[in-house]
Amino acid sequence: MKKDITNKPEKNLPIKPLTKKEMHEASRERVSLITKEFMQGFEFLSNYPKSVTFFGSARFDENNEYYIKARSIASKIVNEIGYSIVTGGGPGIMEAGNRGAFENGGQSIGLTIQLPHEQVVNPYLTSELDFYYFFSRKVCLNFAAESYLFFPGGFGTMDELFGLLTLIQTHKVRPVPVILVGKDFWQKQMNSIFKDMLEEGTIDKEDFSLFTITDDEDEIIEIIKNAPVVNSEPFDIKKIENKKSELSSKKCISCEVGGIPMKKDEIESLLPSINKWSLIDDKVIEKIIDFTNFSEAMNFIDQVAFISEKEGHHPNISLFDYNKVKISLTTHKIGGLSENDFILASKIDDLL
Questions:
Q1: Against a cut of 0.85, is the pTM above it?
Q2: What whole-number distance in Å separates Cα of residue 217 and Cα of residue 219?
Q3: In the chain, what are the domains?
């Protein structure tokens, strides 16, 4: 018999759900807050360049088998690898991960969220950052770590898991270990869900390799040890000063309207000064760089943007195949190449 939910009383939520109209009217204010949360989140995470993020149910107590295992694994990560532990900062599995780190003198990080129920900040955090919006917090969690551990959980855990797997599958983030701890739970869940998806053709068999299901703590530690560490250090222009060539030591000058494009012999005399740039129709120099992953490519684009703004001379930049960057340089105001193009090309070479 179908349940009658029409007269079900509303919960008295401290955070009132928004209507579409309210969202529209408050959009500017909210976009500003979202931007602020992103900026604060990534700045906060930059202080912890080597970390592992734990996900799982907030409802497990300290006697639960998964709580005990999460606490044990976090202890080993801190003691054997020295990585920080990042969680959502709440109870359950989050508390277990933070507790394992805290009790062993490690960095225990919480990205907390304002919720109408369930979210209580656990007492084992050495540092925390509070979020209002789930999706800004979720983005920060998805870019926070070198490895991700998922313990059994509910809707929130599943949302985080499938969101992360989607980002990896579509190459929006670098390939990163996703470890599902709790074989009895995950094998039943994933085999059932993925079997149906595979039969319908909505995923490929290779997508099963996006995650590992294991309860072996030594195997988990080895996976984390072997995961590449992302260079999350902020770009520092001083680091490339000693690499500067004679050409890249120059400063771009203002592009004057009415200037004359460089002649072919002038272009050919400067081409050997830059590394593997192609000349296109005597008007454009172009370079394609392959990176290991999406994150490295985006980091490089950020650095090129920084240099270009500083010089006041801007290239055309495009990203394709998720890890390839194409840089094209020309001086539009004169309809061809100027020395500025070669100066900036040389400065870009110094970044590599």
A1: no
A2: 5
A3: 29-226 (3.40.50.450), 237-351 (3.30.1360.20)
